[in-house]
Write a structure and sequence with these properties.
Chain A: It is a multi-pass membrane protein. Chain A: Pfam families: BPD_transp_1. Chain A: Keywords: Cell membrane, Membrane, Transmembrane, Transmembrane helix, Transport. The complex is a heterodimer of chains A (295) and B (288). Chain A is mainly alpha-helical and 295 residues long. Chain A has two domains: 49 residues, no CATH class; 213 residues, MetI-like fold (Orthogonal Bundle). In chain A, helix 3 crosses helix 9 and helix 6 runs antiparallel to helix 9. Chain A is globular, with a radius of gyration of 24 Å. Chain B is mainly alpha-helical. Chain B has a single domain, classed as MetI-like fold, CATH 1.10.3720. Helix content of chain B is 71%, strand content 1%. In chain B, helix 5 packs across helix 6. Classes of the chains: A mainly alpha (295), B mainly alpha (288).
């Protein structure tokens, strides 16, 4: 199903003598009131906060102009070098990438089992995956802390990688099973008839078609991990192991007079997720329909 | 032999996921149940031991903050979900229309979805703190909205809407795109206007998506701690403390694990009860 082709009844029949021009909608004013005005208002609500952060990040301290020019990068130098965002950023990237890899690999395995096999316990597995959505991470801080303490992973980025992967996994497996189910089994079967093993058939035939699914699941995992705050706050207390959200929360607390540093830290936190979001947003709606409809 | 190996394949594939869920989700829940019956405080290890139902008695009888946080949690979830449903549905209907620049408009209005709770706090503190905000340009007098008992609730609700509406809209847009276009055509042929098409075609088809979205988001908003923890810290005067925030504060700040576990159990029971009730009442997934 293509998500961009929308059948619009009552629009297509005007094309006659001037086919090069788009047919004009009949009730233009109604459309403006119904569509563009609310959309415009909502865009203002969405974008003004982002703009405000950018303004503070590039405006010299003490200035109050709403349109900063010339811009300065002094706040970025402060947060990156003096406050330690270079270290926080590196830690967040490590945790995010490892969790992305682990989540995606395990989601492909679990999703393949769910979509290609009818095995005893399959329904139970599905129910457990869905039930985990009701388990709040905040409520498990206490026992998880105890477990990671026993494992010697407190103040270690490993605890964050494990915890974030576990909380990313259930939805990722369901989502991935939807994407795999959308690839017809017959192509895989044909490869196996040609002498491929099941694994080789999967790698050679199915995996290339899973690109949108891999991008969607991987990006969700990365964004969730990048944004996770409470686990990092609870399991890591040494500053050289801080992740970006923890660093940012301390900037909010300690530098509340220095809004330039706060805003610059915010921009540093936002840039990676905004880039990932720009890639993933095309798959976002489609990914959710695939997971929800076929899961 | 070959068929035995074949039958083992799915179990091998799901085994890592099952192991991780068992070790880091199921076992912790069991241990929360166990700790809730214990005295366990990392700052006072000499007093650890079996407590029976003492933690629960303390919670239900002595702890006013428990009841207050429950009340605020209900208010918070109802306000957020009601407004997110309304705005999210409107937004989904708008970006489901075809117009020039729709792809860009979608990216922009959905973008706060990717922003973390802490970053949301950082951004909105720049708007709310006196002397920095945009209220100045709207000609409003600037006050400390987050420190004022009258304004703190609307302020935190609007902040969470900024981040919460996009995901609601994404879920509903996915539902909207599953409605066959012919149905609208048929309804238009039958002379149904825009409002009647919405009532009789769109809403019935969206029902499962709406039920699922409201449920998922309610659980999510119930459990949402990052934003309130960093934006208000539960204040002023603890009026914006939700139950999970209270638990997190107990765990992080006072290290009182026994009592925190009792609070957690209360949270589980409440969440489970309302989720089942909601699924029952909404008759989710039943054929109509």
């Amino acid at each position: 199903m293509s998500t961009d082709v929308v059948i619009r009844p009552g629009r297509a029949h005007v094309a006659g003598d001037r086919p090069h021009r788009r047919p004009r909608p009949k009730r233009d004013r109604g459309r403006v009131l119904r569509l563009y005005v609310p959309l415009g208002l909502y865009l203002v609500f969405t974008l003004v906060p982002f703009y405000w952060m950018l303004v503070f990040a590039v405006r010299p301290s003490g200035s109050t102009t709403p349109v900063p020019w010339p811009i300065t990068f002094e706040h970025f130098e402060t947060v990156w070098n003096d406050i330690g965002y270079a270290v926080f950023f590196r830690n967040s990237v490590i945790v995010g990438v490892w969790s992305l890899l682990a989540t995606t690999v395990l989601a492909v395995m679990g999703g393949y089992a769910l979509s290609r096999f009818r095995f005893r316990g399959r329904t139970l597995f599905m129910v457990v995956l869905l039930c985990t959505q009701f388990i709040p991470g905040a409520m498990l801080l206490i026992p998880l802390f105890t477990i990671f303490k026993t494992l010697g992973l407190i103040n270690n980025l490993g605890s964050l990688i494990v915890a974030d992967t576990v909380f990313n996994l259930p939805l990722s497996v369901i989502l991935m099973s939807g994407f795999i189910a959308a690839v017809p089994f017959t192509v895989e079967e044909a490869a196996m008839v040609d002498g491929c093993t099941r694994l080789r058939a999967f790698l050679a035939v199915v995996l290339p078609q899973l690109r949108p699914g891999l991008i969607a699941v991987g990006s969700f995992a990365f964004i969730h991990t990048w944004n996770n705050f409470l686990f990092a706050l609870m399991f890591v207390s040494r500053q050289d192991s801080f992740t970006i959200p923890v660093g940012l929360s301390y900037t909010i607390g300690e530098y509340s007079a220095d809004f330039g540093a706060l805003a610059a830290g915010g921009v540093v936190a936002a840039v990676p997720v905004v880039c990932v979001f720009a890639v993933v947003q095309r798959y976002l709606v489609h990914g959710i329909s695939a997971g929800a409809v076929k899961g | 032999m070959a068929s035995l190996r074949r039958r083992a394949v799915p179990y091998l594939l799901i085994s890592p996921t099952v192991a991780l869920i068992a070790a880091f989700l199921v076992y912790p829940i069991g241990s929360v149940a166990y700790y809730s019956l214990q005295n366990r405080n990392l700052t006072r290890p000499w007093a650890d031991g079996f407590a029976g139902l003492e933690n629960f008695r303390r919670m239900l009888v002595e702890d006013e903050l428990f009841w207050q946080s429950l009340g605020f949690t209900a208010k918070w979830v109802v306000a957020e979900i009601g407004l997110q449903l309304l705005l999210g549905l409107a937004l989904a209907l708008i970006v489901n229309e075809s117009f020039i620049g729709r792809g860009l408009a979608r990216s922009l209005v959905f973008s706060p979805w990717a922003v973390s709770g802490v970053l949301t706090t950082g951004i909105w503190i720049l708007l709310y703190t006196p002397g920095t905000g945009v209220l100045r340009f709207l000609g409003q007098p600037e006050t400390a909205v987050l420190g004022n008992l009258d304004t703190v609730f609307p302020a935190v609700v609007v902040t969470e809407l900024w981040r919460g509406v996009p995901f609601f809209a994404i879920l509903l847009l996915a539902g909207l795109q599953g409605i066959p276009g012919e149905l609208y055509e048929a309804a238009a042929v039958d002379g149904a206007g825009r409002v009647r098409r919405f009532r009789h075609v769109t809403l019935p088809h969206l029902r499962d998506a709406i039920v699922l979205a409201t449920l998922l988001r309610s659980v999510w908003e119930f459990n949402n701690v990052d934003l309130l923890y960093t934006l208000t810290g539960g204040g002023p005067a603890q009026v914006t403390t939700t139950l999970p925030l209270y638990v997190a504060q107990r765990a992080i700040d006072s290290k009182d694990f026994g009592y925190g576990s009792a609070l957690t159990m209360a949270g589980f029971v409440i969440l489970l009860f309302f989720s089942l009730l909601y699924l029952r009442l909404s008759r989710f997934g039943e054929d109509r």
